[in-house]
Specification:
Length: 385
Amino acid sequence: MAMIKQYKKKNGEKAWYFKTYLGIDPMTKKKKYTTKRGFKTHKEAKIALSRLELEIEKNGLPTKKIEIPTFREVYNLWYEQYKNTVKESTLFVQKNAIEKHILPNFGSLSLDKITVVYCQEQVNNWFTYYKKYSNLIGLTTRIIDYGLKIGLLSTNPMNHVIRPRKSERIDQEKYVSPFYSKEQLKSFLEILNRHEDIQLFTMFRVMSFTGLRKGELQALRWKDCDLSKGTISVNQTLAKSEYGKEIFQTPKTKHSRRTISIDDETLKYLVSWKKEQRRRYLKLGINTLKPEQLLFTDIDNKHLYLDYLNNFMKAFLKEHNLEKITIHGFRHTHCSLLFEAGVSIKEVQERMGHTDIKTTMDIYTHVTEKAKEQTAEKYAAYMNF
């Protein structure tokens, strides 16, 4: 597979060069060649080639020719495989996490220079400021694992780090309640109904009484709602793509694709909103009876942007001096109140679309702990002496 040829230099002089096959690049798995130039005669080039071939046969490929790539280079190779295994919304979130929190500290390092000590330092740092630090550990581990698969390393230093223990302490200034009590939810919806538009009220009513995720709620179409049977089917969700564009996509897991029953009161609000939506948009010359019509839209009948509810909540809670809660907190609220109402763990899991029963159990544990705290008062009230 070697080749020796004559060529002309820039100054017009003639010289010889050879090109020969070195082997397979361990990183790219592609064939690797080397070229040597500047030989005065064919014989000189042939001798140099023979020496190189003899050296390779005796000692293998010259180590200086095989450079261990940087973490960023391995990440780029891993990413090409990874992007075909997840939904666009997941890809967007994970890519953003890698580029913001992992690459700044790992990117320029040669893979073989990354030590357990260095990895531990980064893990400890992530723990101080990033809530989902375990996700960063997992992503970094998978990228380096890819380096192992293509023969660049024999061990992964990330497998030897010690994960910091989550603190039980809560900063009261930053604390946000994971969910509302029955009384808090009732108060919130009453204030919302008095002061805000019917569309906003209907959104929060549906979210609070079905446990839908924000993206699921904003992707709902009227064809997903069977108003005669009183059910909502989750068939799509609003999410962000790899490049930050908001898109509709199928639910993340098979458990997320589900049909949820609606209570009669919430059903009445939905029927009322459908009529009001029809009336409003007819004035603007927009037909809301088409099959793909969304339940909740902006003034142009386009989907509401993903952070719409978050931005509204910040201002609304502050204006009415209400207990802080996130949009996702309304989903937790629904889950906890289902348990308080006596619904079984399995039924709650199916209604919420939880893939892992542990997620359901975590909320159940919180509810039962709360019930334990109230046991003494219940007993004293019953005894009444």
